[in-house]
């Protein structure tokens, strides 16, 4: 279908000429013997089109992100090692307004250059793989983009059409792997040939998340099964070292079919020497992985193999250092270290940039950066009240409310001439910017007045499309029970207990508008974060009512949502593709823009359709952004008090239940 550019033949040897600054060599480079060599693997992952250190949603610079920042340290980090390779681990194509501007406004014709690829080409990557978000704009768009890369992009589990009987028989869109013929310099300064194999993997869940773009055109094989088939072939073809580019998180140790986060069982496969990971937007080694089964966080090992996860949006450069020894004409790993090196640090409440920009990277995307700024600043309407998400996890929230209002408006219009026109329409929406791993500034905050496109993108981060499902009242209840898993269980009489379960993603905290309900925190969660039944007799959802009356478990409802949730994303009980009755051609963001234009001025004030059930003499704590303090008086459904400072720049708040 497409032709990739040939493998780069540039030299692997780094050196002090790469930087004018004083460089301290890694111990492997200084201690390597005559038959030993130091190989450094440098990784970027989950760039999500963040080339500039700029937050387009806030329309201001941001020192925590940007490939231009990460790029500025690549030369120096390469120079710390005698030999180095640079790889990207996927999710580079979608994720900020520049990505949407290119996809929806500028377009990508055959031969066009995408700004993120232009920026990556500056750095001389050796290889890359695909992430799940590469498919958000369709296959043709993706291939037009990656054809501009001057480095190979590999993926071993993305098939054309149906999967074959065995992985090696699959017809793949891309090469499953490449083997780079390079030279490495040993501890005595002698050069030796080495064959470095790089193989890539994408989560099979793309077939759910992007079914509209992939159904009938592609399929995705289980990551581990694909690796078990292809890695031995790489060895048969003479790969000395095999590096897995796993756009998959560090999840459970035990293998199960079609795991989304499969990096631990993947690393365990014989023949894989090292693994770079991503997808989860975390940094490994790091404290989040203390005690994770199959992981040695102190040594940076995953199933005993060197591994790394380099943050997201360019926040870190992932580093794996291998000490190789030549044995009978072949290389083997005899030592390793791993590190996720950040581009910034926090001092008290301030972000301190550790690095500057690489001018050549900025120049590569400058024109599209300026066009994106003009794109996101275009007004589309007004809001009579501020839109913010600081309290979206603890109270009905204006940033979620406006999404639900727009979805309801749209679906009612779309279904009015269909067999479902007489069914009541509910709407499910979740907060996308709710702090957490995104940091203390990762919240929607739009003042009253003009709303520009940048603000709509801030309300709804992803280019999901609208879908509608038909479900029963009982399934509505279970949907909400799943959402309520974001809260820890709170014993009555507890003082300042922690409210939020940090392992539960905020984008799975759906609020359903059109019904009213309370959440009883004294009850255990019925479902765990993966949708498994944890406490079958539990029920956190109380007083669930529609139109002022207890909901009929058998009554049918239309629920407006997005393609991710309707297709089974998040593993919500009973919600899957067989419940879908309407697939929209429009993105949720486009619908929000249309709604605002139609209304002229919107009123996004939350209607408090959900609250916590009261618990006598019980208080809980949660963290939010410091700017949340100015909105305390606006939250009517629950009394929130300032409780001082949290960690990592967050502010802390208390609720008296």
TrEMBL record:
Record-annotated membrane-spanning stretches: none
- What is one GO cellular-component annotation here? outer membrane-bounded periplasmic space
UniProt-listed InterPro entries: 5'-Nucleotdase_C, 5'-Nucleotdase_C_sf, 5'-Nucleotdase_CS, 5_nucleotidase/apyrase, Calcineurin-like_PHP, CpdB_N, Metallo-depent_PP-like, TAT_signal
Q: Which GO terms describe its biological process?
A: nucleotide catabolic process
Q: Which reaction(s) does the protein catalyse, per the Swiss-Prot or TrEMBL entry?
A: a nucleoside 2',3'-cyclic phosphate + H2O = a nucleoside 3'-phosphate + H(+); a ribonucleoside 3'-phosphate + H2O = a ribonucleoside + phosphate
Which PROSITE patterns does the UniProt record give?
5_NUCLEOTIDASE_2 (PS00786), TAT (PS51318)
Quote the EC number.
3.1.3.6
Give the required cofactors. a divalent metal cation
Q: Which residues form the Calcineurin-like phosphoesterase domain?
A: 39-281
Q: Which Pfam families match?
A: 5_nucleotid_C (PF02872), Metallophos (PF00149)
UniProt keyword annotation of Cell membrane present: no
Give all residue intervals belonging to the 5'-Nucleotidase C-terminal domain: 442-574
Q: Which UniProt keywords apply?
A: Hydrolase, Metal-binding, Multifunctional enzyme, Nucleotide-binding, Signal
Q: Which GO terms describe its molecular function?
A: 2',3'-cyclic-nucleotide 2'-phosphodiesterase activity; 3'-nucleotidase activity; metal ion binding; nucleotide binding
Q: Does the keyword Hydrolase apply?
A: yes
Subcellular locations according to the entry: Cell envelope
| Similarity remark | Belongs to the 5'-nucleotidase family.
Name assigned to this protein = Bifunctional 2',3'-cyclic nucleotide 2'-phosphodiesterase/3'-nucleotidase periplasmic protein
